[in-house]
Design goal:
The chain is of the alpha+beta class. It has one domain: minor pseudopilin epsh domain (minor pseudopilin epsh fold, 3-Layer(bab) Sandwich), CATH 3.55.40. The protein is built from 3 helices and 12 strands; from the N terminus they run H-H-E-E-E-E-E-E-E-E-H-E-E-E-E. Strands 1, 2, 3, 4, 7, 8 and 9 form a 7-stranded antiparallel β-sheet that branches. It has a 5-stranded antiparallel β-sheet with strand order 6-5-10-11-12, with helices on one face. Strand 1 and strand 2 form a beta hairpin. The protein is elongated and about 90 Å long. The N and C termini lie far apart (86 Å).
Length: 222
Amino acid sequence: MKISKIYNFKFSILNSQPAFTVIELLTVVFIMGLMATLITANLGGQRDSRNMTIAQNQLVSDIRKIQSYTLSSRKFNNQDVQFYVLKVDAASPSQYTIQAMYNVDTAPQLVTVETDKLPDGIQFSNVTINGTPASCSLLSFSTPFAKALMSTTCNPGNPTLPYAVGTVTPDTYQDILNYISNTGLVTTYGNGTMVFNIATTDGSALAKSVIVNGITGLVSFQ
């Protein structure tokens, strides 16, 4: 009899302990979901910011690379390359191409050295030369002072044809542009400013730029 009373007393104590109500459980679940959403959004923003910085550094490195390649007359496929060119085409905004020009004195040849992709979620928003947007742009450097040479067109034309009529000095980028477009009417900028603008593909406010000074050949970023 005494044992039964003790058991009933303990059972009543256990039953009287407070428990979560349905509303409290739903509140906790809601708060946890909200925190998970905020954490995910923050991680996504950090990823975009990191990829933007990587893209900017990558572009600066590759521009300086073609500058160095041109000034050192670096060979490609055992060919003496006179010009290395960086091409950005708005039709493929998430990548850019490094090209090489050789045999510019006789039968100019244009070949692709490499195609580099920007990090995930990053693309070129536009490229401008002296403030004018270019749907397709070319950047190279001339010897011996690394002067930047720029064009707002990059039609490859027919690589088996010689220079177009009107070319004069084979060591200028104008000749290369005339060859590439198969015309002498291409505008070349040798004393301007070229700005590569990159942004996220989702349209966020994140944006960075790489700037090339045509006169000094200086490559900077902001």
